[in-house]
Amino acid sequence: MILALLLAQLAPATPSVPSPIPIISPIETNPNASPLSERSLLAQGLQSAAARAKVLGGTLGAVIVDLGNGASVDINGDVSLPMQSVQKLPVAVVVYREIDAGRLKTDQTIHVMKNDLVPYASSVNDDYAKRTDYSISELTELMVEESDNSAQQALIRIIGGIDTVNADMANLGYGAIYCSPSDDGYAKPLALSQFLADLNSGKLLSQSSTKIVLGMMAKASTFPGRLRAGFPAGTLVEHKTGTSGTVDGVRDATNDVGIVQVNGRTLIVVAMLHGAWGKDSQRDAILASVSRTAYEATRQFPI
Fold it and tell me: For residue 228, which phi and psi values (nearest 5 degrees)?
């Protein structure tokens, strides 16, 4: 016994490795605690996600709304954050408002101009030598589903410029959503959550146009490791991502916002991560933790 104690003292100490902040629900943290309300569970989940963002030097703006029972929580919901390609949703809505008003048609042919071309994240740009004409519906699908930047530029041009988009947003009551021609607009997460709720309810577009835009969002193929990753496979997630470039390993924006149908509930989930360093998988996982929090609330508080 004495020899064992001496050997233990002489053995090199195991280096201390900081543990990652766990993604667990507040109820699982203390199984003896009194049951939490849905809102408390959501709030604690967002606080945990924000703490993970802070470890990476970032700021998380997030909102979760249960449209069925009105439960709603946010963290930094009233802080303006860069949207990047999330702004393609307001552009799509303005395009289809023009269609609803009869000023544009879905099958109307648009000639893509050289000034519309953006040399990254754009099949329209890549295929320009072979194809220059698209219908409005094709351009909008490319913009929302694939986040095509050239498609966005062509659509902004035909609706009268980015000022038209911002004027429409302001007239509809979303003054905190501000778009720019180069995807460097900004928005408050709470404003985006209201915009999504109004889109889902049919307040912004006709029934047919609402169905079309939501269908595009459901087919969005970008960054499946964000909001989609927090829900079971097969969950209907109608969403739009937004991502900036990196400067010295820091991304100005890692975003995903959407409408989710799960466990008989309709949820609005907005997650915007600003200024975080690290790997893309780490940043994406923070957004996934926001959606996982929303899912756990529907599971632990069934209707």
Answer: -60, -35
Contact 253, 273 (CB under 8 A): yes
Sign, CA torsion 203/206/207/210: negative
Range of the domain at 72: 36-84+187-303
Say yes or no to pLDDT of 181 above 90: no
Q: Considering the domain boundaries, does residue 92 fall inside one?
A: no
Q: How many Cα atoms within 13 Å fall on the side-chain side of residue 193?
A: 26
What is the C-alpha to C-alpha distance for residues 273 and 46, in angstroms, rounded to an integer? 12
- Say if residue 290 is exposed, middle or buried (CB neighbours under 10 Å; 0-12, 13-18, 19+): buried
Q: What is the DSSP letter of 79?
A: S
Per the structure, how many domains does the chain have? 1
pLDDT at 35: 52
Give CA–CA dist 46/271, Å, rounded: 10
Q: Is residue 114 part of a domain?
A: no
Classify residue 59: in a domain, yes or no.
yes
d(CA 37, CA 297): 9
Backbone angles phi, psi at 19, to 5 degrees: -85, 140
Q: Is 26 within a domain? A: no
Evaluate whether 131 touches 176 at the Cβ level (below 8 Å).
no
In CATH, what number is assigned to the domain containing residue 223? 3.40.710.10
Torsion of CA 17, 21, 27, 31, to 10 degrees: 0
The tokens of 127 are what?
Answer: 């295929």
Strand 250-251 and strand 246-247: pairing?
antiparallel
Residue 52 makes CB contacts below 8 A (sequence gap 6+) with 20, 21, 60, 285, 286, 289
At 63-78, the pLDDT tens digits run 999 999 888 999 999 9
Q: Specify whether the CB–CB gap between 232 and 295 falls below 8 A.
A: yes
Task: Read off the pTM.
Answer: 0.87
Three-class secondary structure of residue 70 per DSSP:
coil
* Integer angstrom CA distances of residue 180 from 113, 186, 216: 19, 8, 22
**Residue 179 above 90 pLDDT?**
yes
